[in-house]
UniProtKB/TrEMBL annotation:
Pfam families: ILV_EDD_C (PF24877), ILVD_EDD_N (PF00920)
Residue intervals of the Dihydroxy-acid/6-phosphogluconate dehydratase C-terminal domain: 370-564
Protein name: Dihydroxy-acid dehydratase
One Gene Ontology molecular-function label: metal ion binding
Family indicated by similarity: Belongs to the IlvD/Edd family.
Amino acid sequence: MTTKPPKIPEKISDTLRSTAWFGSKDRNGFMHRSWMKNQGTPQRMFDGRPVIGICNTWSELTPCNAHFRQIAEAVKRGVLEAGGFPVEFPVMSLGETLLRPTAMLFRNLVSMDVEESIRANPIDGVVLLCGCDKTAPALVMGAASCDIPTIVVSGGPMLNGKFRGQDIGSGTNLFSMSEDVRAGRMSVDDFVGAESCMSRSAGHCMTMGTASTMASIIEALGLSLPHNAAIPAVDARRYELAQNSGREIVGMVHNGMRMSQLVDRRSFENAVKVNAAIGGSTNAVIHMLAIAGRMDISLSLDDFDEWGRNVPLLVDLMPSGRFLMEDFYYAGGLPAVMREMGRMILRDAKTVNGQTIGENIANAECWNREVIRPLDSPVQEAAGISVLRGNLAPNGAIVKSSAASENLLKHRGKAVVFDGLEDLRARIDDPELDVDANSILVMRNVGLKGFPGMPEVGNMPLPTKLLEQGVRDMVRISDARMSGTAYGTVILHVSPEAAVGGPLALVKDGDMIEIDVKARRIDLDVSEDILADRQADLPKQLPHSTGGYEQLFINHVLQPEKGADFDFLVGRRGAKVSQNAH
Ligand code: FES
Ligand code: MG
């Protein structure tokens, strides 16, 4: 892992943002420097060198990011090494496992925190420390709206889970083992015993869940140094990469390399294709749409379908396959995948180290053909996320076919409808529930406004009585999301969601639903007249909220095909602040 040393000009620039704070010898200059000096900062740090913000999502309540103080220290070493002035600042941290009602409710809030923290402070370039699922999109969204030089350093995945001689993956094996307990194949004692075996080192989920997916997308977008996505959190090379990134950002500031000069529509095309090749998370669709929206880059659901349609699944990682992120890194990581993708990748897209993607991956080697397959023998042909439309989802719904059952991708079945998560929990195991293996489970009011926050509940548990019969998968449809670590024939992000009167609200038990992923269709087989009558009977008010941030969210969140951003946050606002109160 080598990077070119950043170019540092002879004369230090006086046009940096930070000069407006630190560059004068008047009352304000005194104020801005003097208080900083209470940290032991020498005067020479204010000589016009780039001030590099290190945006830290460290928190002990975000276990995936709990090692970020050490990562930040490594970044600082790199910034100092290249003649910059590192300043670390916190933003709200989002841990996927603990936050209620769902971490997604707070992604946009954190993006605001990031954007305003950057703009309001004397920061010339920013290093985003990303890890757990929502921390990556939130930080990139906020930085994108400011558009200053930006580089991402991920915390890295945990080491492989190890349980009784077998590798177990974050989330994926939690779901499979909990189904085993419900089906009587695993004892509760063994289940609890597996907890410490699954999460046994620092780092985020080591399946190709949303955290690993977003780290890969960020690398594919050119926003991080090569290999950022896969180096395990505890591998010394993670810290080497963090230090190198600290050096790189100083060079980016000197070269005036803002995010919008690096990332364009081609970068997104690469990232969408990479998401298909790695079997990435469905959540990446929403997050990429939101990031593109912040950058004023046009990106739509149809782009995902079109660009990803013929991309084969090359990476054999859970939940779509067998291996884990540690194996992925040792096999060559994302550069090896992108090199294998050959002409699919737009090689002239730019990256943070001043080289193109093509240059970065030119010599990438693959060391394990089981983990990263050759193009002519993929895990699966055509693994992209499919966008379905029809009278049940006029604005789209998505399905990750690499995590679905082949035989269910074209299916007609009777709807079994749940009105929300509580309803599902109350009735899914009712022996009287009128359901069989051909039924289609439908859940609604779990969307952005309906829940609110669009939780990861789309992979509904199967009825125990069917599990006991050996059923392993069923078609499931909802306006929810699903964890990137989950699997099954799960149709997600149905839009418009039920809570705003989308057709999902009109489905009744026993209605026939037809899905045909190849034809990209999802239809409710009920006449238009009957649907119009049902629509007229729907209540017209938005979900109840207790006020506060939740109210802001319900009032302003856009539907999933628009990235679930707030309407007033879309766009690039830049980093200029014309007023100063002092
Ligand atoms: Fe943090 Fe999975 S829970 S990345
Ligand atoms: Mg997740």
